[in-house]
Amino acid sequence: ELAKLDGSLRQSVNVNILFKAKIIELCTKIVYETEEELLDKIEKLEGSKVKLDFTVESAKFNEALDQAFKENSGKFKMPGFRNGKVPRNVIEKTYGDNVLFEEAFGILAEKEYMAAVIENNLEVVSEPRLAKMDKLSKTEDIVFSIEVFVKPEAKLKKYKGLTIEKVNTEVTDA
Question: Fewest C-beta atoms under 10 Å: which of 27, 49, 93, 139?
Answer without folding.
Answer: 139
